[in-house]
Q: What sequence folds into this?
């Protein structure tokens, strides 16, 4: 494994920790600033919005800069944002710090995916991408529970100070280990936007929004589901989230390995199984053991879709992959926001705490249908290309030879 992948994984670990740890310390933050829990929830929503906007914006602004320098800048931005959050005197400053940190999120994973894929042989690209995303999944196993514990015992400001320190480690790792490769192919904004002329890029982002959104429909409301339906105590939710993170970790590795061998079959399998698991969750949520197992399975299947989806975007936007890759990371967060909202709608309608699982199954099932469409269009394009190539070859064969 190239050591540069380790540096990218460390950065991903810090980003994953700051994205999700706020959910564990939200009551403490709200209490310190004297705001309500729903108001404090803007620290989650503001971060997600910053990812969606920052991914394409900063990627476009970085088209004239080498990818290594851009990754260093993004980690620096991450450090500034989390430091501002840690020492924020008011809630507004804390929110600003969250948004600043979030701006680095999408572009880091988007550019990092391109860098990771370029460090290895073509047949290992998805595995390299999954290794970088391992940092994000490990954050949900270690970083988020540890940050929540520290925040509840020593104060949430200590948590964000620690996250900022992680960012510094990531910055130094990128500076030291990531090779100084060239600038994004094409080197200008127009070449990057040209990738969006390919309908496959849009299909991939739609699959990302709907597929991973299906996971968040369930996980956003996991606390009331596990406490009110399954019968767990509130304190047990932290360990349930560790199980979910462990599932993410394993699913990410499996998704990367098999996507290198058979990308679309891996995507079909993961999305289909995810839809079924979410449907089952409406029933298994009523049993403690089965609920925990299903939650782990949903984490695994949900993140098994990440490497193939990200590689599919890179393959389809091969001429100018950086912006498309970053936009796809934004699509993950757009899916999170959409699914969380839809899940809240069905709960507010009186359908119960397990009803978001039906929403998630519908979203993931729709993503599966789109993946069938993407595969069909890809086969048709390849067949047309072979026909054209064959015709061109025949035209260059002398008439006598053809007889």
A:
């Amino acid at each position: 494994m190239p050591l540069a992948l380790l540096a990218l994984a460390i950065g991903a670990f810090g980003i994953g920790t700051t994205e999700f740890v706020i959910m564990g310390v939200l009551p403490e933050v709200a209490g310190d600033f004297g705001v309500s829990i729903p108001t404090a929830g803007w620290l989650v929503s503001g971060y997600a919005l910053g990812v969606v906007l920052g991914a394409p914006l900063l990627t476009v602004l970085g088209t004239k800069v080498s990818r290594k320098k851009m990754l260093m800048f993004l980690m620096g931005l991450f450090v500034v944002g989390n430091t501002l959050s840690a020492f924020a005197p008011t809630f507004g400053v804390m929110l600003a710090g969250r948004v600043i940190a979030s701006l680095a999120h999408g572009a880091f994973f988007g550019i990092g995916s391109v860098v990771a894929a370029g460090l290895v042989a073509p047949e290992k690209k998805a595995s390299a991408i999954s290794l970088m995303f391992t940092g994000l999944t490990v954050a949900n196993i270690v970083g988020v529970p540890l940050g929540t514990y520290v925040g509840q015992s020593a104060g949430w400001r200590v948590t964000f100070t620690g996250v900022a320190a992680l960012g510094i480690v990531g910055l130094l790792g990128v500076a030291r280990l990531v090779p100084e490769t060239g600038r994004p192919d094409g080197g200008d904004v127009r070449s990057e936007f040209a990738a969006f002329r390919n309908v496959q890029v849009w299909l991939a982002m739609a699959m990302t929004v709907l597929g991973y959104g299906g996971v968040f429909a369930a996980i956003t409301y996991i606390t009331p589901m596990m406490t009110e339906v399954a019968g767990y105590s509130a304190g047990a939710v932290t360990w349930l989230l560790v199980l979910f993170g462990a599932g993410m970790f394993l699913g990410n590795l499996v998704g990367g390995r098999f996507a290198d061998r058979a990308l679309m079959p891996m995507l079909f399998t993961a999305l289909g199984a995810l839809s079924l698991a979410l449907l089952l969750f409406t029933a298994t949520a009523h049993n403690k053991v089965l609920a925990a197992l299903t939650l782990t399975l949903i984490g695994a299947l949900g993140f098994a879709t990440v490497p193939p989806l990200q590689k599919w975007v890179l393959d389809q936007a091969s001429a100018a992959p950086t912006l498309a890759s970053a936009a796809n990371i934004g699509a993950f967060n757009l899916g999170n926001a959409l699914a969380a909202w839809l899940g809240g709608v069905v709960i507010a309608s009186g359908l119960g705490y397990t009803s978001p699982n039906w929403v998630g199954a519908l979203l993931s099932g729709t993503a599966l249908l789109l993946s069938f469409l993407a595969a069909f269009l890809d086969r048709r394009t390849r067949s047309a290309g072979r026909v054209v190539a064959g015709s061109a070859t025949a035209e260059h064969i002398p008439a006598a030879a053809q007889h």
